[in-house]
Amino acid sequence: MEMKGTPSLLGYHMPAEWEPHSHCWMGWPERSDNWRDNAVHAQRMFTKIATAISKFEPVTICASAAQWTNARSQLPPNIRVVEMSMNDSWFRDTGPTFIVNRRESSSGTPENKIAGIDWTFNSWGGADDACYTDWSLDLHVARKILAIERLPRFSHTMVLEGGSIHVDGEGTCLTTEECLLNKNRNPNMTKEQIEDELRAYLGVKKIIWLPRGLYGDDDTNGHIDNMCCFAKPGVVLLSWTDDETDPQYERSVEAFSVLSNETDASGRKLQIIKLHVPGPLFMTDAEAAGVAQDGEAKPRLPGTRLAASYVNFYIANGGIITPQFGDQKWDDEAVRVLSQAFPDYEVVRIEGAREIVLGGGNIHCITQQQPAI
Asked: Is 365 annotated in the active site?
């Protein structure tokens, strides 16, 4: 059902990611020009991640007609596999942003409605800067998911990816200027106009802008979900490094300064928890050689710094699904920090998450939570 008007006026808002989910949506990777060795390694990792999430909440995997049988054969039977066309499997960015309406009806009973926002997607940069040249199938992913679930759809002409926003569910939104103010997204919109649309569609009251995202996150132009996220209202996790010679250091200090001087929509000063990045990690010659560099997607070059971050985790119902990169020191430290930040959750390590970073993102980027109502 196509909805008229703006979500916030109708009582909708985007809930925090730690609020209960009905299930999780993921795509199935297959692009040989983005995932090395015909995506066989990535498919194993998607299977491992989906299986981990499915222990906490239902999971649906969307796979192309050519890949449906392959996906079904690799995934456990408790995971639903549906056929869907797509250009790639980044469902955080191409899937719908789910919103909820918990207003009481005229009779005084909660209505508990759910809907989705179908933003415009331009492959992270449009004609001049896209990650792949054809994204026509991705344009329909959000609409198809909402149709499968028979949920109302709000469409928006503004270019926005789900990885570029984080909310606390209480009126505060985190984002980066590097991404949302990039001229390859909405060149005819001012910062104030973008803020107005975030308020109207996400139901937020305050937007906190970090100047930049993670160093090396060029594919997304600095998505917030690699840099900073809410752990709970008033508490944020920030990608950090202690190495003053690392280009990430300047970005982390810059973000820390902004966050230290901000309050959330409720007027709270923010508690900042530092989550040290791994590495630095770089793409190897062998990894780059496994990618079909055919000109349809951005080249994957050996020696490229990988945008690896422990902030890019998924909050399931009772579980924190966190990437591990083979950097023992910082892998262990990330688990320690996340265990303290989420004391009531089981922190689940996903070893080998480097494989997802090779394609340009991580666990948060390939998942999309659907709230429970």
From this structure: yes
